RNA sequence: GGGCCUCUAGCUCAAUGGCAGAGCUGCGGACUUUUAAUCCGUAGGUUCUCGGUUCGAGUCCGAGGGGGCCCA
């Protein structure tokens, strides 16, 4: 709200006509000794309960039962000495209210016409009846405005502009059932993940969001300042290093569902703050954690759709059931290029392939990063069905154990669903000496100006030196899981995504 | 970072460089069974901002801001 608009709230002089009128109605209620913002209303039934109890009423029939209920007015119609209103409850249930001059009285009906608006919260008391047209209704004996709306709701039958939906999500939630469904689906999915992990004896913890040294991923962090210690702190880019400290301490199945922050671009699939599940399990490898990830996703699908086949926003179906494809990074890349490429393929040869397929090469990339970029350029778009991509170069995975058979590779997978990356998993590196070498190499990259590279986390290394059990781990974006299950864009799955200030 | 598109009434959108409009919403009226009712009447504008060209700019030009799409 602008200063100008705030100032004018005092007088109402500069407000749009519709808002001015509603403020006048609020003032009129107060002047008549009626509280436009009530403490409550003595409700006997919710709208959903009324539907359940009186759904069998025949057209035009009266129940003889008087009830009190509440809701937001979403539709009004006047027909002379009779008025209709449709109420809606938070769960989306709608229910009609009728105000007949014969029942409610001339004065009350006039008050309704004079002071009630679409958008108001009201309480109403009366007999449950069915209208001539068979619409289940409360025939009001009395009503009360319990929460006066000062702004008009947008027209219900035209889609809100996307920007308005995102910036004013509260309005989006009022007018669009799908927006409310998304909130509920997200809650179901997160609950399903927690329940499944709990059933597998995983312990949920919360680790620092503000860190002295960011780590656990390669990404640019947000920086903030702590006055008491006069030090800069970083919003975490991943919880990994703390969850692994937990494992050292004996919490050997551990997970966290919480927010990460990455100071990078924002587009249709990336948000600067995003919710993530990370889980670590001792005595398992990347296949162990891959199987767990698959069952978590399939369980989440069942929790929303009751099936491992999900229905996307465009109406199409997507099958997450059964076994999922497994390919290797270099195997699939070789197939796409028609040339054999391995982790040992020289840098110059890879650059030549990049030129051939029109991929621009960043000189900062090493051969491993270049191979990954080639894979993303050539293979990823074709990965429609759920697919595990296995065995990534060591160069780009500084926290991952070396591959058991192939030097230069790591035991890492990325899970792709409908062409985007949904989750990643590893056989974790547990040798503190190799971990120190990797971190020092990263620190040299950072010193050379790579602002995504990690530094050496001495406390983490100290923890590892106390002995870490054989370990596997995974990370999965919650927002992306919602996208995978529903086909929505990231700005729909996040309730209040970051937007530039108005 | 580059390219393209976009910003007008509460909402969704129109308007060859020539009086800024429609539908819904709102307001006044008619109607005791409406479901996006119908009928009569009526109000509502810093056309994102600043500057320029022009007799005249929502429209053309420049700069800036917001949003979207595509590419890297």
TrEMBL record:
Which cofactors must be present for this protein to function? Mg(2+)
Which is an annotated Pfam family here? tRNA-synt_2
- Domain named Aminoacyl-transfer RNA synthetases class-II family profile: residues: 151-501
Q: Where does Mg(2+) 2 bind?
A: 421
Describe cofactor binding as the record notes it: Binds 3 Mg(2+) ions per subunit.
Query: Catalysed reaction(s)?
Result: tRNA(Lys) + L-lysine + ATP = L-lysyl-tRNA(Lys) + AMP + diphosphate
Keyword entries, A-Z: Aminoacyl-tRNA synthetase, ATP-binding, Cytoplasm, Ligase, Magnesium, Metal-binding, Nucleotide-binding, Protein biosynthesis
Main location (coarse class): cytoplasm
Q: Which InterPro entries match?
A: Aa-tRNA-synt_II (IPR004364), aa-tRNA-synth_II (IPR006195), aa-tRNA-synth_II/BPL/LPL (IPR045864), Lys-tRNA-ligase_II (IPR002313), Lys-tRNA-ligase_II_N (IPR044136), Lys-tRNA-synth_II_C (IPR018149), NA-bd_OB-fold (IPR012340), NA-bd_OB_tRNA (IPR004365)
Report one GO cellular component. cytosol
Question: What terms describe the molecular function in GO for this protein?
Answer: ATP binding; lysine-tRNA ligase activity; magnesium ion binding; tRNA binding
**Superkingdom, taxonomy of origin:** Bacteria
Tell where it localizes. Cytoplasm
GO biological process terms, alphabetically, are: lysyl-tRNA aminoacylation
The EC designation for this entry is 6.1.1.6
Task: State where Mg(2+) 1 binds.
Answer: 414, 421
| HAMAP family in UniProt | Lys_tRNA_synth_class2 (MF_00252)
Question: What family is this?
Answer: Belongs to the class-II aminoacyl-tRNA synthetase family.
The record describes its quaternary structure and partners as: Homodimer.
Query: Know the name of this protein?
Result: Lysine--tRNA ligase
- The species this protein was found in: Glycomyces artemisiae
Gene symbol of the encoding locus: lysS
